[in-house]
Each structure stands twice: as C-alpha cells, then as structure tokens.
Design goal:
The relative contact order is 0.10. It is built from three helices and six strands, in the order βαββαβαββ. The chain has a three-stranded mixed β-sheet with strand order 1-2-3, with no helix packed on it. Strands 4-6-5 form a three-stranded antiparallel β-sheet. Residues 96-108 have low confidence and may be disordered. The chain has helices at 13-21, 41-79, 86-94, and strands at 3-6, 26-30, 33-38, 83-84, 103-106, 109-113. The chain is α+β, with helices and mostly antiparallel strands. The protein has two domains: 3-39, YefM-like fold, CATH 3.40.1620; 43-113, no CATH class.
Length: 117
C-alpha cells in the first residue's frame, strides 16, 4: 500500500528520517492532489541501477534482432546462388574491401554470401 501523506507532514523530522531509512517512496499531496514523490537516496540509486540494467538488456536484444535479420538476409542470398567462391573471396579481401559475410558449411566447401550489410 503506498504511503500517501499531506505536504504538512514534511514538517516532522521523524517522518523524513523514516523516509530516509525506508525502501518505499512517500507520495505527498497538496490540496488533495498528487504533488511530490520522495525517495531515500539509497532507494533512488537502486531504481536507477535497475533502470540502467533494463536499458542495457533492451539494447542487447535490439542488437541480436538486427544481427538475426542480417543472417537471414545472407542465408536468402546464398539460397539464391549469390555467394563467393573461396578464390573470389580471397581476391576481394586482397583488394581491402570490407565485407560482412555469413559462413555456411556444405560438404567440404565454404560458402560466403555476397550480401553486404
């Protein structure tokens, strides 16, 4: 249950001490409407750390999704016959071209997608 108090409660030092020791926010009202939310510094830090954790996880999820799309695009190009022979690939690397490739093993042959992303 949220702790909801009128703004006048902030005059009492013991209430501020309780907030500082608590892991719960204090919701302050003014004239019966929401006005402030007060958190202890430790609780605030916890919330920020957790938020940053979720942001990083979401970013990793987006990167994995983008990579999966690129891999699927390369697979499709290989199925369509758009791939380099090993010799073509070595020549291309010799020309210092940057390629993103999808590697697939078929029998004893290496297939390199021509799809650049």
């Amino acid at each position: 249950m949220p702790n909801i108090q009128p703004i006048s409660i902030l005059r009492e030092k013991k209430v501020l001490d309780q907030i500082n020791q608590s892991k719960e926010p204090l919701f302050v009202t003014k004239n019966g409407s929401a006005y402030l939310v007060i958190l202890s510094p430790d609780f605030y830090d916890e919330i920020i750390k957790e938020l940053n954790h979720y942001k990083m996880a979401l970013q990793r999820e987006r990167e994995l999704h983008d990579l999966a799309l690129k891999v699927n695009k390369s697979r499709d190009s290989i199925k369509e016959g758009k791939f380099y022979s090993e010799e073509e690939f070595e020549r291309t690397l010799g020309n210092n071209l940057l390629l993103h490739t999808y590697y697939a093993k078929t029998t004893d042959k290496l297939i390199l997608s021509k799809e650049t992303f």
